[in-house]
Amino acid sequence: MTTRDELRAEKALQGMEFPASKTELIDYATERAATPKTLQALHALPDRQFENKEDVVEAVPQEPEGDAPGGVHR
């Protein structure tokens, strides 16, 4: 995922009550009509309890940004 994914996850979880499980995060974002990319980022999270929104953002898996998987398209 990318920095944009972190921002998407943070925005989708505004107002979420914590602690929350991965499933609760996905359900909440789905109810708020999160974008497919946001849901993809949330599905990539580890299956655990999250203490706050910052905890979620830090757990979003990182991948270099670019047009192709694995980094910048050349």
Automatic annotation (TrEMBL):
Domain of life: Bacteria
Taxonomic lineage from the root: Bacteria, Bacillati, Actinomycetota, Actinomycetes, Micrococcales
Pfam family, one: DUF2795
Protein name: DUF2795 domain-containing protein
Alphabetized InterPro entries for the sequence: DUF2795
Region (Disordered): 55-74
Organism of origin: Brevibacterium picturae
